[in-house]
Specification:
Layout: H1 25-31, H2 37-44, H3 60-71, E1 76-80, E2 85-88, H4 90-95, H5 108-111, H6 116-127, E3 132-142, E4 147-160, E5 166-175, H7 177-223, E6 227-232, E7 238-241, H8 243-249, H9 259-265, E8 268-269, H10 282-289, E9 293-301, E10 307-318, E11 324-333, H11 335-364, E12 368-373, E13 378-382, H12 384-390, H13 400-403, H14 405-409, H15 412-422, E14 426-435, E15 444-456, E16 462-471, H16 473-529, H17 538-568, E17 577-580, H18 581-599, E18 602-605, E19 613-616, H19 618-634, E20 641-648, E21 652-659, H20 693-703, E22 707-713, E23 717-725
Parallel strand pairs: 18-20
Antiparallel strand pairs: 1-2, 1-5, 3-4, 4-5, 6-7, 6-11, 8-9, 9-10, 10-11, 12-13, 12-16, 14-15, 15-16, 17-19, 20-21, 21-23, 22-23
The structure holds adenosine-5'-diphosphate (ADP).
The site of adenosine-5'-diphosphate has 20 residues, from helix 19 and helix 20.
Length: 731
């Protein structure tokens, strides 16, 4: 087959017609020898149309090389000239597939453009005169319509030109693709084996890691404070649980077959007491129906029979395709929380009762209470006592000034403003307020004790005021009455004292004034009696004696009045000393003995401890005793008796004067000590005294730190007892 090769521009050559057959046989026979397919094709080829030009123009070296190629029984190719024109043999043709036959006479780079990069350095070396050998060289060849990997062992040998230089490259090729592929397969196999081993090792490692992860997972699960159960879907087979499950149920629970088993073992009660059915458990619903159940509460029975409240949340575990592969339940023991909540509710109920009770106490409190809030002092809370004070008015929810305008006028709003602004309490005692206590009633003065206490909020601000206090009007009035009465009594007492003092002064003055003329009467009567004015007859003497007796009596009376007046005005001085009792009694006995004898009365003095003394003013002591003895003589009828006795204790000396006289009625026993009081059984005796003797005696006894008392039975007699302080030592 003849095929014209396109001519290249850089190598212009004249188009040569193919030489006539008869003129060329010899050359062609020389070059393209044999009956091979390629020899025949070469002979037919229009070489003149190729860069090699007509065969006749070929150098000998080319001709020889071509002959070698065509004669070789193994794949050979000659690449010639700068354009690397190809000439090959039958064996080579079988290697290049569909590239044959037009590869013949074609420049190699045009035939194998994809191999340019591989071929160029080889041919450059060959054209430098080097022989290049390659082993299992990789050639991506398009031999059969697809590019495939082919491998070759090849030798590229330079073909010298006769005149020097290299004309081309003579190559022998052996395709080693099968060998290379076989080796590649072996290598692949070995690699696969290695990879398999690696994979196995990795798998083992993964198993170890998985077990470790499982262990870690279980450890983590067991340390969770909440109970966790993981079950497979849809079988319900339990895959994992943790310690907290056992803690809730109060017993170690083995990993059981299925949650159905758990369900039957775990007796649960709904909060309403109803039993939980097995299908109702949240985990069962999660694995069976893919449901998510949150905060499902029920009461379960523990192994020991006690009950626990649990809160269960269960949800399905989904795979990449959203299929439920498992379910997880988280169970929280809320027993303590529930009990705390119950306790809290119970306390809240108690608190409410207490609050209601307090509100009632507050309402009924006798003290008034009010709560006012905000700058207008809006009345928020009042109790009944407030209404008792201010009357039935509309108070709640109203500003103070509006609800109680009468109090506002009395400065209460200013007071409240001050407490609110200063946040300091205000305390009032018996503050007078004026209030109309019923609508239309005239204003009335009331007195109140109260405190305005600031109501301090948590942030320290003063939000309002608590007012508490009480209506003290009645107490204030009662106290004022008492004070008034006391004042009046005080005034009366002062007046009485003054009157008494004036009376004393008057009596003292009077006594003095009376005594002077009385002494004159006595003196002149005595002179007359002595006959200084002339002889006195018997009748005159008798009259003069009477005058003298009356003068003495009157003088005695005046002396008593004077000494009582002295006592009353507090002008008496006591000369206290240890007074011997026996001597004193002897002296007073001597003083009254003549009168007793004259009246036929027996007068005796009882035994007195020798040397006994008493703390007293001796003169005053004698005065008291004489007075007592004189009274005894005076109020004891003829034939009676009078006895003086003495008794002593460590603290006191008691001197008693006992008579068997007329006695004193029981209801008069105290009165006899009052001045000018006389208790006459017989009114005729009244003239005999002033009624001052006992009053003076008691005042003197008390003035010396003692006391004078009486005991008496009418018709039997009286006993007067004078008690005085005992002396500290004896004589
Ligand atoms: P006077 O003796 O001057 O009347 P007194 O003060 O000594 O005043 O006595 C007051 C009154 O007490 C007497 O008037 C008498 O009624 C009564 N009285 C005093 N001593 C006795 C007594 N020993 N027995 C009965 N009555 C007595």
């Amino acid at each position: 087959m003849h095929r014209a090769e396109p001519r290249t521009s850089e190598e212009p050559r004249p188009t040569l017609r193919r030489p006539a057959a008869e003129t060329l046989p010899r050359v062609f026979d020389e070059v393209f020898v044999g009956d091979s397919e390629l020899a025949a094709l070469c002979r037919d080829h229009d070489w003149a149309a190729t860069p090699l030009g007509p065969v006749e123009s070929w150098p000998q070296s080319l001709r020889t090389a071509a002959a070698i190629v065509l004669g070789a029984g193994y794949p050979m190719i000659l690449v010639w000239g700068p354009r690397l024109v190809q000439l090959y043999n039958d064996a080579y043709a079988s290697l290049i597939g569909r590239k044959h036959p037009h590869a013949l006479g074609m420049p190699t780079h045009e035939c194998w453009p994809a191999l340019r990069e591989i071929q160029t350095p080889i041919f450059e070396a060959v054209f430098r005169g080097e022989t290049v050998r390659i082993v299992d060289a990789h050639y991506p060849l398009d031999r059969f319509g697809v590019v495939e990997d082919a491998y070759f062992d090849a030798t590229f040998a330079p073909v010298p030109l006769e005149g020097g230089g290299i004309g081309g490259s003579l190559s022998t090729l052996v395709e080693t693709t099968d060998r290379v592929c076989a080796r590649g397969l072996r290598e692949d196999h070995a690699r696969l084996e290695a990879e398999t081993r690696l994979a196995e090792t990795r798998a083992e490692q993964l198993l170890v890691e998985r077990d470790a992860a499982r262990g870690l997972f279980q450890t983590v699960l067991d340390q969770l404070p909440v109970a966790v159960v993981v079950a497979e879907a849809p079988s319900g087979r339990v895959l994992a649980t943790n310690h907290a499950v056992s803690r809730i149920w109060g017993a170690q629970r083995p990993l059981t077959e299925s949650i159905a088993r758990y369900s039957t073992e775990w007796v649960g009660h709904h909060p309403d007491g109803r039993l939980v059915r097995s299908g109702e458990w949240p985990l069962a619903r999660a694995v069976k129906h893919g449901e998510t159940i949150t905060d499902w509460v029920c009461e379960v029975e523990r192994a020991d029979g006690t009950r626990a409240m649990v809160e269960i949340t269960a949800s399905p575990v989904l795979d990449g395709q959203d299929r439920t592969v498992a379910g997880v339940a988280v169970i929280v023991d809320i027993t303590i929380r529930v009990e705390a909540e119950r306790e809290r509710q119970r306390l809240v109920r108690e608190l409410e009762i207490e609050r209601a009770r307090l509100a009632e106490i507050f309402r009924q409190a006798p003290a008034f209470l009010s709560v006012m809030r905000g700058p207008s002092h809006r009345i928020e809370l009042v109790n009944d006592a407030i209404y008792e004070l201010v009357g039935r008015r509309e108070l709640l929810g109203r500003p103070f000034a509006e609800a109680l305008p009468d109090l506002a006028e009395q400065g209460f709003v200013d007071l409240l403003d001050h407490v609110l602004a200063s946040c300091e309490p205000f305390v009032a005692r018996e503050m007078a307020i004026t209030l109309g206590r019923t609508p239309g009633a005239p204003p009335e003065e009331r007195f109140v004790d109260f405190v305005y206490q600031p109501l301090v909020e948590a942030d320290g601000t003063c939000a309002g005021i608590i007012g508490h206090g009480s209506d003290v009007t009645e107490q204030v009035r009662a106290r004022r009455d008492v004070e008034l009465a006391r004042e009046m009594a005080e005034r009366a007492r002062a007046e009485a004292e003054e009157a008494n003092r004036v009376k004393g002064q008057f009596l003292a003055a009077m006594s003095h004034e009376l005594r002077t003329p009385l002494n004159a009467i006595g003196g002149y009567a005595e002179l007359l009696e002595m006959g200084v004015r002339g002889p006195v007859n018997e009748q005159q003497r008798s009259d003069l004696e009477r005058i003298q007796a009356s003068q003495k009596h009157l003088l005695g009376l005046i002396s008593e009045v004077l000494s009582y007046a002295k006592l009353e005005t507090g002008n008496v001085r006591y000369a206290i000393a240890d007074v011997p009792v026996r001597d004193t009694l002897a002296a007073v006995e001597g003083f009254v003995a003549p009168q007793a004898r004259a009246k036929g009365l027996a007068l005796t003095i009882g035994a007195v401890e020798p040397g006994l003394t008493v703390r007293a003013d001796p003169e005053r002591l004698r005065q008291i005793l004489v007075n007592l003895l004189a009274n005894a003589v005076k109020f004891t009828d003829r034939g009676g008796s009078i006895e003086i006795r003495c008794s002593a204790t460590e603290a006191h000396v008691r001197l008693s004067v006992r008579d068997t006289g007329i006695g004193i009625p029981g209801d008069k026993l105290e009165q006899v000590f009052e001045p000018f009081v006389q208790v006459p059984a017989d009114p005729s005796r009244r003239s005999e005294g002033t009624g001052l003797g006992l009053a003076i005696s008691r005042d003197l006894a008390r003035g010396m730190g003692g006391e004078l008392t009486v005991d008496s039975v009418v018709g039997e007699g009286s006993t007067f007892v004078l008690a005085l302080p005992a002396s500290l030592g004896t004589e």
